[in-house]
Amino acid sequence: MILRQFLHSDPVGISYLFGCGGKAAGAVVDPVGDIQPYLQAADNTGMRIHFVIDTHVHADHLSVGRALAAAAGAEYVLSTEAGVSFPYKGVHDGDVLPLGNVSATVMHTPSHTPEHICILVTDQTRANEPWFVFTGHTLMVGDLGRTELAVSAEEGARQLFRSVSRLKELPDYVEVLPGAYAGSVCGRRLSGKPSSAIGFEKRHNQAFTIEDEAEFVRFMVAEIPPAPPEAARIRAANSGMAAAAA
C-alpha cells in the first residue's frame, strides 16, 4: 500500500495519492492546486495514476481533477449523481475501483452535497477488511460537513444522518482520512489533526455521537457556517456549467 497526504492552506483542504506499489496502480483523491506534485509523487513511488476521484463537485476551490486525469492518462471519477456537463467515469454506491492488490469501494453519502461519495480502501495483501476511508466533507475530524444544495437545511441534515449512520457501521479501527481540517469553512469544530479513526470519532465527535434523527437535525441546522461567497460560481465552473473566470 502506498499512501501520500497533501495538506493545503489556501483553500484549506486535503488531497491524497494511494494505491498498490507492487502493481504500480494508483489513484488521486480531491486534488487541489498545481497538478505537478501529484504527478511527481506518483513517479517517485513508481505508480501510474489510473483514477482521479473528486468526492463531490467542490464549491470552495476550482478542481484540477480533470486536468490531472488528462495529464496522467487516467479516468476522472465522480458520482453518477453529479450532474455535470462533461464526460467522466460515473460510479454508483458499491462500485469497486481496482488498483492491483488494493480495492477502492464507493459509498454514496449524500450530505455535504447530493452527489457526495466516500471511498473505502482495502489492501488485500494484508487483509480482506477495510483499512481506511476517504470521507471527503461528510465526516471530518471533530465534526461533520455543512450540508449544501438541499431542498432545505433540515432535509440536508436528514440525508446526512443516513450517510453517517452507514459510516458508523464500519469497524472502529478503520482510519478516517477527511477532505479538510481546521480552518475550512465546511465544518464548525474541525480538528487540526488531519486523520482519525471511526471509533475515536464515535466517542469524541459531538455530531457523530448523536443517535436520534430529530436531535441530529436540530444540532446540524444550528450554527451552520456560511458557504464561501463564490461558492455558486465555483461549483458551476467545476460542473462545466460556466467558465472558471466568469
From TrEMBL:
SMART domains cross-referenced by the UniProt entry: Lactamase_B (SM00849)
Domain Metallo-beta-lactamase, residue spans: 12-180
Top-level taxon of the source organism: Bacteria
Gene3D superfamilies, per the entry: Ribonuclease Z/Hydroxyacylglutathione hydrolase-like (3.60.15.10)
InterPro entries hit by this protein: Metallo-B-lactamas (IPR001279), Mito_Persulfide_Diox (IPR051682), POD-like_MBL-fold (IPR044528), RibonucZ/Hydroxyglut_hydro (IPR036866)
Pfam family, one: Lactamase_B
Membrane-traversing stretches: none
SUPFAM superfamilies to which the protein is assigned, alphabetical: Metallo-hydrolase/oxidoreductase
UniProt protein name: MBL fold metallo-hydrolase
Organism from which the protein derives: Bradyrhizobium zhanjiangense
